[in-house]
Write a structure and sequence with these properties.
The complex is a heterodimer of chains A (about 375) and B (about 425). Chain A is mainly alpha-helical and about 375 residues long. Chain A contains 17 helices and five strands. In chain A, strands 3-5-4 form a three-stranded antiparallel beta sheet. The chains are: A mainly alpha (about 375), B alpha/beta (about 425). The interface between A and B is large, with 39 and 45 residues.
Chain lengths: ~375, ~425
């Protein structure tokens, strides 16, 4: 028996066993403690059995989040101990400059402070303004990610709703259609990203289909991957792939839950298809739409796979999650990457809170109405 | 509960006894590399020979074919790193973080026989310098690949041009490149080019030949606005995506950079000495050193190099040192070009890679004039600034500034990153 290999993995096996024993001991200890404090057996058992999840949550989530917050106030490169620098990382990220331009064509480098690069240029009359930043990569990423989210989320929701309405039809074999339309959601994200990249390359499938039409008008084939204007459009197109997935399934389930009596009552009142859709379907579906909106918004702001495998031109920037990853692992600037991540978190929380605040105006909960 | 505790104690005792029982086995030295399937298989052959030749240690290869440096950093930071790692020139800057063991303190290096892998004086000084930090050496180089020119003899013959020869200059190169750029099928579209440049080859070749420097030797200045640097960089830019001699960005992106040369569409290609461009079926390819600067006559070329390092946290530094020297000796007999002066000859190169026999003389000649990048602790940030603020905007046509103007603007930002 070759014990050499066993020797390599035995310490890990022993650690696994000890951790398992420790978790069992924790469950037992929490149960016993509660019973001693007079907690009913049922409640004590429930709380004891949930301890493994609590332990995992504390160790892998709470601790990690807390560590990230701490590291955002440090200079840390993985190999040396973190060095406390206070708000320096945040100060660098928010080191912005808004400078007037004498002419619309004036070079940013002539007016911006040192180490500031142009983020946005606004032309006003013969002059204008230029917004510059020291951490220009971060702000370009922020711009691209927010534009991507603002455009793709509503379009994606509309597409998912349309597809759900289609799959809600009572036609023969609709079950098979539902399976086919859901298949894209189970494909690996990386393989899909690489396929999209090939399809949109200069001689890829998309340009081959477009070429005859473009030749008629004497236009060049689009440079999807290298043109800073077209590159964001490419990602928006790719985002429609997400229509075929959980969003559609959730909306379809919501459609199934709308009482038929409401449609019958609308028919009696003489409502047409559009009126029924606007006054029955959408309000009754609004909780599912609300859920999809929140989840899609968070997902759009955190896009990573397509950013990692489809390059973007420097001028367009890249997606925020990818920028944070590069800051952490390419430049080993863990402190700055943590600060970027916390700013991203605040933005995600802020936008999500806005959606929640707005929900009282457009989300209809049938149970709440009946309760009133 | 008591039974549970007893069982745990028993398991722990069992594990301890296993450990004791196995204490007499050879030490396991783990090495991580970026090798893919084929390369890993070849490396394993060398490792098997080393393992069979002694009983002090056994080398175990743990390849990481993707995200190599991300995994290297997290493994070392997490304390689970291998004993040995392959590290390329750019990432030798990690030595300044104190995560590599100083090989110059290894007994196997201090007491090395002359002209062996452990003999530091047998390495090209410029290549060894990449591995040095604060007076210590942190890696043993196993390859130093000079950039050479591969030229398609068939295309030269068809164009009625003489092949590049010893002493050829930038002017000869540009004349050849322009003459080889043609519409061969008469459809109005250029389908053959004299050269190709998509950011590779590195601009440093032409900068150094012109007498310029990216970083001063004392790492205090970045004189990229010197007339010599500007001259070299302007020549380099003139070869990139220039329709007179090179395919455009989209064409290279869609058809592949090296693939276009292999397809017989490119007359001259600057590649590493170990590239397989001179053994493409159906192509008659010659190899020569890079063209010389017309005035200085310099044929300095860029050398990509890589080393093997020892993890500073290795539990077995002595065995790791011995394994490092043995493995480096073996790899230097496998990879070309060896970074050792005593092995800078045609015989050693052909013995390592018989398929390069026809090109061996040109490669060995080019190796005499190869230079490596000046690596220092914060090189990653320097490189990032150089690319994002200077090289990238110029080669991607994102600025209307001249090379000299942009260099003057960017120089202070580069010098902010120097030690």
């Amino acid at each position: 028996m070759d014990l050499g290999v066993l020797n390599q993995f035995l310490p890990t096996l022993v650690r696994y066993v000890l951790v398992a024993l420790g978790v069992l001991g924790l469950i037992y200890g929490v149960y016993k403690l509660q019973r001693k404090l007079g907690v009913r057996q049922e409640a004590a058992t429930g709380r004891a059995l949930v301890m493994p999840w609590v332990l995992g949550f504390v160790v892998f989530n709470v601790f990690a989040i807390g560590a990230s917050l701490y590291l955002s106030f440090t200079d840390y490169n993985l190999f040396r101990a973190p060095e406390w620098i206070g708000f320096e990382n945040y100060r660098q990220l928010f080191d912005l400059s808004l400078v007037p331009l004498e002419t619309a064509e004036q070079r940013s480098s002539e007016v911006l402070p040192r180490r500031h690069d142009e983020i946005v240029r606004l032309t006003v009359g013969d002059g204008g303004f230029v917004l510059g930043a020291r951490e220009s990569d971060f702000w370009r990423s922020m711009r691209l990610t927010l534009i991507y989210a603002i455009v793709t989320v509503p379009l994606g929701l509309a597409g998912a709703l349309g597809l759900a309405l289609l799959l809600n039809q009572k036609i023969k074999g609709v079950g098979a259609w539902r399976v086919l339309f859901y298949l894209p959601a189970v494909l690996p994200a990386v393989a899909t990203a690489l396929l999209w990249r090939w399809m949109f390359s200069q001689s890829g499938l998309v340009n081959q289909i477009l070429r005859p039409f473009l030749d008629v008008f004497g236009m060049d084939t689009p440079q999807w991957l290298t043109n800073p204007t077209l590159s964001p459009v490419l990602f928006i197109i790719i985002s429609f792939w997400g229509v075929f997935g959980a969003n559609t399934v959730i909306l379809l389930a919501g459609l199934k839950g709308i009482p038929q009596e409401l449609y019958e009552a609308a028919d009696i009142d003489g409502a047409g298809d559009w009126a029924k859709f606007r006054n029955v379907t959408v309000p009754m579906l609004s909780p599912a739409i609300f859920y999809n909106l929140v989840v899609s918004l968070i997902g759009a702001l955190q896009v990573f796979e397509v950013a990692a495998f489809i390059p973007t031109p420097t001028e367009a920037g890249t997606f925020l999650n990818w920028t944070i990853f590069q800051e952490a692992f390419s430049f080993r600037n863990m402190g700055m990457a943590s600060a970027m991540a916390w700013i991203m978190l605040i933005i995600v929380l802020g936008l999500t809170a806005l959606v929640f605040r707005s929900s009282s105006a457009w989300v209809f909960y049938q149970g709440a109405r009946e309760g009133n | 509960m008591k039974r549970v505790l007893l069982a745990a104690a028993g398991l722990t005792l069992l594990a301890a006894s296993f450990g004791t029982a196995l204490a007499q086995d050879p030490v396991t030295i783990r090495i991580s590399t970026w090798a893919g399937v084929d390369e890993a298989a070849e490396l394993q052959g060398l490792i098997d020979e080393i393992n069979a030749s002694q009983s002090e240690y056994q080398i175990v290869h743990e390849p990481i074919p993707s995200d190599y440096y991300t995994q290297l950093q997290t493994q070392i930071a997490g304390g689970t790193g291998a004993d040995l790692y392959w590290v390329d020139q750019n990432n030798m800057a990690l030595a300044s973080e104190g995560i590599f063991y100083p090989v110059s303190q290894c007994d196997a290096v201090v007491n090395a026989e002359p002209q062996t892998a452990g003999d530091l004086s047998d390495y090209y000084p410029g290549i060894l310098a990449v591995n040095q930090s604060e007076g210590e050496v942190y890696g043993l180089p196993w390859i130093a690949q000079p950039v050479v020119v591969y030229y398609n003899r068939g295309l030269f013959d068809a164009a009625g041009l003489d092949y590049p020869a010893e002493g050829w200059t930038w002017d000869d190169f540009m004349a050849n490149a322009r003459a080889l750029t043609q519409d061969t099928d008469g459809d109005g579209q250029t389908d053959q080019w004299g050269f190709t440049n998509n950011g590779w080859p590195p601009p440093y070749i032409f900068v150094w030949q012109a007498g310029g420097e990216l970083i001063s030797s004392d790492f205090t200045t970045a004189p990229i606005d010197s007339p010599e640097f500007v001259e070299g960089f302007e020549f380099y830019l003139n070869t990139a995506y220039n329709p007179e001699l090179s395919p455009g960005r989209e064409t290279i992106s869609e058809q592949g950079f090296g693939e276009m040369f292999k397809a017989g569409q490119i007359g001259m290609f600057m590649g590493g000495a170990a590239d397989d461009l001179d053994r493409v079926e159906g192509l008659d390819v010659g190899v020569i050193h890079v063209p010389a600067h017309p005035e200085t006559g310099s044929i300095t070329t860029f050398a990509w190099n890589a080393s093997t390092v020892i993890n500073a946290n290795t539990q077995h530094p002595e065995q790791a040192c011995d394994a490092l020297v043995s493995l480096t000796e073996a790899i230097q007999g496998w990879k070309i070009v060896s970074p050792r002066i005593s092995q800078a000859n045609v015989e050693h190169l052909v013995a390592s890679e018989p398929r390069k026999e026809a090109s061996a003389e040109a490669i060995v000649s080019a190796a005499q004039d190869m230079r490596a990048l000046p690596i220092f602790g914060n090189y990653a940030e320097f490189d990032s600034v150089f690319w994002s603020e200077f090289w990238g905007p110029l080669i991607n046509d994102e600025t209307d500034l001249s090379v000299a103007e942009l260099a003057a603007e960017v120089r202070p930002d580069l010098e902010d990153t120097l030690p």
